[in-house]
Design brief:
Number of strands: 13
Largest sheet: 3 strands, antiparallel
Oligomer: single chain
Structural class: mainly alpha
Shape: elongated
Mean pLDDT: 85
Length: 566
């Protein structure tokens, strides 16, 4: 298992092309967030070593809401950058203008902000390679397309859509694997120039025949050595569309180079395009970054996650009140083969045993080499468990004031919506309530449950079905005897300036030993729980009495004493 303060792993050092002698000099700590770690990598004979800064990016397309798969990709990029002291860039890839959805960029940025994933460079932040929206970088892509044309690695294609469709159909009938017959590759320079001057619509295609095949197979940091996938590519893929916008392939390669991205961490769905991207780097004479493709996330039934099936949008999890720390923890563990053990003797957080990791723990422990190439099932039950742990950690420790303050505001909104006429919604009171309910809730939205929280904010309804059922557990004579004895003692003790939970526990014990001799604890507690709450669920009676205070307790006991069996 990783130490919580550990040096980059051997795999990470290899990933960064760092030699063994350099590895020995890596300090036994992670680089502070925001700092830039430049790792010296060995160069070839006669060359001086170069300094390499780890740079990663999250590059979503604004074609809809941010989904769980996208958030996990962003998270893994963020953790890599923070662990290795690199930079994390957000880039908006909006070159497919036909699929843009209004508000998507804002949804993506808001989702990342909610999840606590801050980016160093990107829209609204700036950076050395701005702009970070691809539709604002069109001239750059055209320059690279022109470079490819001039070198013979690309050409202009004037074929109309109907001609291309007929060509594909003809090639298919001939049982050819080709998808285009390269008609325009053979046009003369004069013909191409004439048609361009005439304004004929055209695209720019990669000239497959000009790209030498790699001698060594492509390697992926997650999937390992890959088989040659050129057979699945279309013939001479389009790089620049007729509207002068680049395809994803050209734009991503150009931007990753221009932004000096060292590691491309993205979804498994882009594996099939990797041969094309490697070819583009070769055609442009550029060094390719290292690639890590992340396996798909699956539904509990093993099916592929779909926008049409279940909750996949991050906004769904925000609306349902899940803690951002729990959602990111849940996603981080999906495909990350981290070894978690609990060993209190070594000072490790016992919550590690259940996988409940703080953000700092995730940063210090994350290792790309630990990612599995198998697809991962997202278990909703695991999220609920993690959410409960993170929620309790926030409520009970209160060590991070900002986090607790945000949580308190959310709790106040939820309770305010549930009990709009209540006179007991002050922050101090709400803090007492959520601390008492913490062990019994998995999400802040559980505060909506009337059986769990209503009696703290409004008078209990002792005539409801749940209250009537609870009262049947105590004989009527016992019920009356307990109420009168507790009322008498609470009234006598109500002159105290403040009461604690221990004060109430001591009072109940004294009453039980003297005035209620012969009665069981169950008789006493069920009576008081009914009289004070009308609900069988909730914190201990002593905690409830502490929060309500002696005055409100007496008011409820006075009501209950006259209450008869149904």
């Amino acid at each position: 298992m990783h130490s919580l303060l550990s040096r980059p792993s051997a795999a990470e050092l290899c990933m960064l092309d760092v030699g063994e002698d350099i590895a020995k000099n890596v300090t036994n700590r992670t680089v502070p967030t925001g700092a830039t770690a430049q790792i010296r990598s060995p160069a070839g004979p006669g060359l001086h070593p170069t300094l390499m800064t780890v740079r990663v990016r999250f590059a979503p397309s604004p074609t809809g809401a941010l989904h769980l798969g996208g958030l996990r990709t962003a998270l893994y990029n963020y953790l890599t950058a923070r662990r290795l002291g690199g930079t994390f860039t957000l880039r908006i890839e909006d070159t497919d203008q036909t699929r843009l959805v209004s508000g998507s960029v804002e949804d993506i940025v808001d989702g990342l902000k909610w999840a606590g994933i801050d980016f160093d460079h990107g829209p609204g932040v700036g950076g050395p390679h701005k702009p970070y929206v691809q539709s604002e970088r069109l001239d750059l892509y055209r320059q690279y397309a022109r470079k490819l044309i001039d070198s013979g690695s690309a050409y202009r294609c004037f074929c109309k859509p109907e001609v291309l469709a007929a060509t594909r159909d003809r090639l298919f009938k001939l049982r050819s694997n080709a998808t285009y017959d390269r008609t325009c590759l053979h046009l003369s320079d004069e013909e191409v120039a004439r048609r361009v001057r005439a304004g004929d619509q055209h695209v720019v295609r990669l000239n497959d025949t000009s790209i030498p095949r790699q001698e060594q197979p492509t390697k992926d940091l997650v999937f390992g050595t890959l088989q040659d996938g050129h057979g699945s590519l279309p013939t001479d893929p389009i790089l620049l569309k007729s509207d002068s916008f680049p395809t994803y392939h050209l734009a991503s390669v150009v931007d990753d180079h221009e932004m000096q991205i060292t590691h491309v961490i993205r979804g498994e769905e882009w594996l099939q395009s990797l041969p094309l991207h490697v070819d583009l780097y070769a055609a442009l004479g550029l060094k390719a970054p290292q690639f890590a493709h992340l396996p798909l996330l699956l539904n509990p039934d093993g099916s592929k996650m779909s926008k049409r099936k279940g909750d996949v949008k991050v906004s769904d999890y925000i609306k349902k009140g899940w803690e951002p720390e729990a959602v990111t923890n849940w996603l981080a563990l999906a495909g990350w083969g981290v070894n978690l053990t609990s060993d209190s003797s070594k000072g490790l957080d016992p919550l590690l045993a259940v996988g409940a990791l703080s953000r700092q723990q995730m940063i210090e422990m994350f290792d790309l080499s630990s990612l599995t190439h198998r697809r991962s099932i997202l278990d909703p039950g695991k999220l609920e468990s993690l959410n409960k742990h993170h929620l309790q950690r926030k409520i009970t420790s209160r060590c991070e004031d900002q986090d607790f303050g945000t949580l308190l505001k959310r709790a106040e909104r939820i309770l305010g919506d549930a009990y709009p006429t209540s006179s007991y919604l002050e922050s101090e009171y709400v803090v007492q309530v959520i601390k008492a309910l913490a062990p019994r809730i998995s999400s802040l939205h559980d505060l909506h449950d009337p059986a769990l929280s209503a009696y703290f904010f409004q008078e209990p309804d002792l005539t409801c079905a749940a209250a009537r059922k609870l009262k049947t557990t105590v004989d009527v004579s016992v019920y009356t005897r307990v109420i009168k004895a507790v009322t008498q003692n609470v009234r006598a003790a109500a002159v105290e300036a403040s009461w604690t939970t221990e004060d109430f526990r001591g009072l109940v014990k004294v009453i039980q030993d003297s005035d209620l001799e012969g009665l069981t604890t169950k008789d006493v507690m069920n009576t008081l729980r009914h009289a004070l709450t009308g609900s069988k669920v909730g914190p201990s009676v002593a905690e409830i009495m502490t929060i309500l205070g002696p005055v409100r307790c007496l008011e409820r006991l006075d009501v209950a004493v006259s209450f008869s069996n149904p």
